[in-house]
């Protein structure tokens, strides 16, 4: 139950990284038994604050009071000992150990000196899980559990450590609707026990279901704290971006021209069955569907990253021989992959080197790379796309998600690509950067580029597309113009068995 | 002008290794009066050039995230082939050298093809090549050294230009070429890219198979250049030459700060790394330290260099800690 007693008080916390002031004298106050949401765009300083509380980073200034006492958190172990647990997006579970072995990993109950007391651990785990309202055998292997259940194990682990504070980083990102309901019930349950929760999420809507209060950060600064009942989504967004966001999806004034791409009877194993569609100049073609419906697989085939078994691809009404990404790129196709860290960027190299990677000839004289040309090209796109980086020599891994995505975009823009495939273009990036990506898509369409946009966010599909194709089990389940589309008919096509 | 500035920049980043080299030099100077003499320094350069030249190629391979264990065997096979062509067949010296180098390059290409087309992990493919090339070298020479190499060939190993040994000059030329390739051409840029993230490189339209193969070919070529120098200096080509050479070469690259996980590294670092190994060996010889203890000490230096690298990487990853600001301070 929420009381007025503060369990954790942070005041004037400052954290500097080389060249960046990540946190600038921020305050944060957590009460006993409350769920306190922390929101802000990527790069606002949420993760840094969490890492300071959990002892991963050391603060450069300010004070932390835990249960009224001033503390100097020395490291992750110290933080855990105080009673602070963090559940990251990537779980820290060992897949081939059981639930109870994971819960007590490193803190096993012992019979004497050397023998692990499995029975005791089993009983304790069972009790904790029951308290959470979960009916599962603690001997089950983690590898056999779904994401939602793994998350519950993480929560059980936190409870087993007698945590007073549990920090959850994007806990709903990988969950389905039903599972989210379950999670919220569990969080209510934690509150009943007097446990405080710091809740980080990009999904603002759910805050009204789960949080008591919300604190907004922007650019490393504390902006405001509100009781959740006294605020609304628009106010939060305004505070997060520091400006009004009236139109989430900007207007587009593109002329739809001739057919630029056609796919005919494309097949690949069981994954893609007899796919045919076309794309016109200046058109934004949305691909909706459930995860695993074959959208990414289709795009990889069109881009030559995977081989198709049969079918034809026509570019400008002429058959294009696409054997690998290189030939696709030479035919004028660009592909912005869904996983920018694994597929889009060379994280350990600079912004400059990443941008010119798709077309080095632009920065070469004959056989020789010209550094001045390379720099100039990078600077041009840093400015054009408003990429926030200390300079073109900065390694991409140190940029925020939204800025990394802009570097990926720049890679394709330097080539004057005719057909651009966006796979989940705004995944994991913040509201402000999203809008910039949308504007850019519009601008490209206005310039006559044909755009395919794969997205799992229906508002995005509906807000951006001229035409929508819905995929289901590797087939095209339906096509519709934007005028005829709504959430209901897309979903019914996407989920039809 | 730009190249000079660039050289300065890259030197700045390898300052740790360079400081180590200078420190070692200073210690040796105090420890023995024989160290800081022109003859001895030139001797070090001559000795270091073997490892340094092969390390230039190895730097490319390691930047792509690969490894080449076959350099010692390639060194032996190519030098035996050249010696055989000169001595047994009586062919023109430079034709024989040229064909020997080509042979080294081809062995590298075979490595590259196995790695990119089969595909085999670099460790396995070059381990196999290490055995095959060494074995062929024994087969070709029947295990007997080939003596009596032509005078003009011996210049490669023993020649002097003024006070400077010819191999040292060759080494400098190889490093200038490597610097150029790594920083000013597609080969280098793509090596960094595919070493940093191969999937992203492929999806950016880079023919990663081609560039990987080039990189292994280059390493084979450079290893056979070391082979020519070695046999010229010893006045003999033998099938046992360069046994364990690959480890020295890899050590030089690693001491020079190139990351074994790929995507990072500087050519100048490998030169410094090879010189560090040369100075240590030479100094310990002068101090009459037994070759057994020398192995121990070189091993410790490798561990120290990698430890520094790992610590530096960790502290730069969380962008925290005093070490990274220490290095940042050094850089500026």
From TrEMBL, chain A:
Gene3D superfamilies hit by this protein: P-loop containing nucleotide triphosphate hydrolases (3.40.50.300)
Domain ABC transporter, first and last residues per copy: 8-244, 251-496
Alphabetized CDD domains for the sequence: ABC_Carb_Monos_I, ABC_Carb_Monos_II
Predominant cellular place of this UniProt entry's protein: membrane
The UniProt record lists the keyword Repeat: yes
Annotated GO CC locations: plasma membrane
Keywords: ATP-binding, Cell membrane, Membrane, Nucleotide-binding, Repeat, Sugar transport, Translocase, Transport
GO BP: monosaccharide transmembrane transport
Database matches in InterPro entries: AAA+_ATPase, ABC_carbohydrate_import_ATPase, ABC_transporter-like_ATP-bd, ABC_transporter-like_CS, P-loop_NTPase
Name recorded for this polypeptide: Ribose transport system ATP-binding protein
From TrEMBL, chain B:
Name recorded for this polypeptide: Ribose transport system permease protein
Domain of life: Bacteria
Compartments, record wording: Cell membrane
Record PANTHER family: ABC TRANSPORTER PERMEASE PROTEIN YPHD-RELATED-RELATED (PTHR32196), RIBOSE IMPORT PERMEASE PROTEIN RBSC (PTHR32196:SF72)
Species: Halanaerobium kushneri
Cellular component terms (Gene Ontology): plasma membrane
GO molecular function: transmembrane transporter activity
Main location: membrane
TM region(s), chain numbering: 15-38, 50-71, 91-115, 122-140, 160-182, 214-234, 267-287, 293-311
Coiled-coil residue windows: none
Bilayer topology term: Multi-pass membrane protein
Swiss-Prot/TrEMBL keywords: Cell membrane, Membrane, Transmembrane, Transmembrane helix
